[in-house]
Specification:
The complex is a heterodimer of chains A (242) and B (204). Chain A has helices at residues 2-22, 36-40, 51-59, 72-80, 128-139, 145-148, 157-165, 176-181, 213-224, 226-234, and strands spanning 26-30, 45-49, 66-69, 88-93, 95-100, 119-123, 150-154, 171-175, 186-189, 199-205. Chain A is α/β, with parallel strands linked by helices and 242 residues long. Chain A folds into two domains: 2-92 and 199-234, 3-Layer(aba) Sandwich (D-Maltodextrin-Binding Protein, domain 2), CATH 3.40.190; 95-195, Periplasmic binding protein-like II (D-Maltodextrin-Binding Protein, domain 2), CATH 3.40.190.10. In chain A, the strands form two sheets. A five-stranded mixed sheet of chain A has the order 2-1-3-10-4, with helices on both faces. In chain A, strand 1 (26-30), helix 2 and strand 2 (45-49) form a beta-alpha-beta unit. Residues 1-21 of chain A have low confidence and may be disordered. Chain B is mainly alpha-helical and 204 residues long. Chain B has one domain (5-25, 57-203). Helix content of chain B is 59%, strand content 2%. Chain B contains six helices and two strands. Chain B has helices at residues 5-19, 42-64, 72-96, 118-142, 146-169, 184-192, and strands at residues 107-108, 195-196. In chain B, strands 1-2 form a two-stranded antiparallel ribbon. In chain B, helix 1 (5-19) crosses helix 5, helix 4 packs antiparallel against helix 5 (146-169) and helix 4 (118-142) runs antiparallel to helix 6. The chains are: A alpha/beta (242), B mainly alpha (204). The A-B interface holds A 92-94, 111, 135, 138-144, 176-177, 180, 190, 192-196, 198, 233, 236-241 and B 40-41, 43-45, 47-48, 51-52, 99, 102, 104-106, 183-185, 188-189, 191-192, 195-202, 204.
Chain lengths: 242, 204
């Protein structure tokens, strides 16, 4: 009888343990990492979105193990709140103007947008791409671009890319890597280096009850390893010095 | 761009303040400015200023490590210019606050021939100072916040002296009248040729 109970208990422990062991790592990452992360490692379950949205979800207890944001603000905020390990910078990007191949708005540079009357797609102020865009326009003394054109605001950079690629916008402000990924249907226009805000991606392991901290640490090591850096480069990202 | 009478008067006041000093960077002796609180696109002039001033600072630092090209008088002038640039970067970044530009954000690379001759080097210094003076002349009339405008006026007065000094070193006659105002669009194209963003993708 005692042996039977012990066997049942062991069996139930195995059953309880099995799903946990098999459960994939949950990686919450900025939309602009949609292509590179799965190419680097297929095994995690990825949730891509605006970094600010993902941050809010983690603050509400979402089951994330790793968080990778497109600006330091979101990861650093979680770190300050004690919700993730100290973030590390793992990738660099820059902003470009994206236009459809057909260029119906006749946009030849960012300065074309000064004259107004065009459809411009940008990120909302809370999402990193939107904050970077506004900062860049202020630096270039071009904030009026947002008042003289028909501006639509998107909650993540993927939606801005889609709008331009589908011809629903004459121009959009996106990351260079997004422009590369959509090069079959769009073209990129450079923006001045002197006005570029520093676009830094940061990654950290989420601290919460039940988080897969070992898996998270391994994933972060993978992203920052030589192989990870090569993958990021392959997808057009810049790499911070070691 | 047209300068109004008020702009001229402001420039005149800035120039007089600068003339009160005997060396480049003497503006520190003038009365304290109201704090700069840039409004909206005022940030553009200040940001351009930081990046261009830091580029010039890098130039003067490198020039001072090329002793064969320059005599003691040249080096004294470069030292004064370097110190003025350093102060300008600090002042501009203080005004920018959260929008301050870090030294790590850009890397400055000068054309290969820059330090091959004194003439090339001083020529580049003149070009950089012209950019700064041109943008500041525009900035004095186009900045909304009075503290930012006065800061730009102060920097303009000092950089006008630096420009005159570099012109003199280049054996050119001093510039007469107001330098041509430059928008950051025109000036930025020239500045961008000297900049790279460390680690930036796609050679940006």
């Amino acid at each position: 009888m005692r042996r039977t109970t012990l066997a049942a208990l062991l069996a139930s422990l195995v059953v309880l343990a099995a799903p946990a062991a098999a459960q994939a790592l949950n990686v919450y990452a900025a939309t602009s990492l949609t292509n590179v992360f799965p190419a680097l490692d297929k095994s995690p379950t990825y949730s891509f979105g605006g970094s600010n949205t993902l941050q809010a979800q983690i603050e509400r207890g979402a089951p994330a193990d790793v968080f990778a944001s497109a600006s330091p603000n979101e990861a650093q905020a979680l770190f300050r709140e004690g919700r993730c390990t100290r973030p590390v910078t793992f990738a660099i990007n820059r902003l470009v103007v994206l236009i459809p191949n057909a260029n119906p708005g006749n946009v030849t540079s960012v300065y074309s947008l000064r004259s107004g009357g065009r459809r411009v797609s940008i990120g909302t102020a809370g999402v990193p791409i939107g904050a970077y865009t506004r900062q860049l326009l202020r630096r270039m003394r071009l904030s009026r671009v947002l008042s003289v054109n028909r501006v639509s605001q998107q909650t993540n950079v993927g939606q801005v890319v889609s709008q331009v690629a589908l011809g629903a916008a004459d121009a959009g402000f996106v990351y260079y890597t997004d422009g590369l990924a959509a090069k079959d249907r769009t073209r990129m226009l450079s923006l001045p280096k002197w006005a570029q805000p520093p676009v830094r991606y940061q990654i950290c392991a989420v601290k919460r009850p039940g988080a897969d901290t070992r898996g998270a640490a391994a994933f972060i090591r993978e992203v920052t390893s030589n192989a990870g850096r090569s993958a990021l480069k392959h997808y057009g990202f810049g790499i911070p010095p070691r | 761009m047209d300068l109004t009478r008020g702009d001229f008067l402001r420039l005149g006041a800035a120039g007089a303040a600068a003339a009160a000093g005997s060396a480049i960077g003497a503006s520190t002796a003038v009365a304290a400015l109201p704090p700069a609180k840039p409004i909206g696109d005022d940030v553009g002039f200040l940001t351009f200023g930081v990046v261009a001033e830091r580029t010039a600072l890098t130039f003067y630092k490198e020039a001072l490590t090329s002793p064969k090209l320059f005599d003691a008088a040249d080096r004294r002038r470069f030292t004064q210019a370097r110190d003025a640039k350093r102060e300008h970067v600090q002042r501009l970044n203080a005004a920018l606050g959260a929008d301050a530009v870090s030294a790590d954000d850009y890397q400055v690379t000068f054309p290969k021939a820059t330090f091959e001759s004194r003439r090339n080097a001083v020529g580049l210094a003149v070009a950089l100072e012209k950019l700064l003076v041109g943008v500041y002349v525009y900035g004095v009339s186009a900045t909304a916040d009075i503290g930012s405008r006065q800061l730009i006026g102060r920097l303009l007065s000092v950089d006008s002296q630096v420009l005159a000094t570099m012109h003199d070193m280049n054996g050119k006659a001093p510039i007469g009248g107001l330098p041509t105002p430059l928008d950051t669009e025109q000036a930025g194209d020239l500045l961008d040729r000297l900049l790279t963003i460390p680690g930036s993708p796609g050679g940006g």
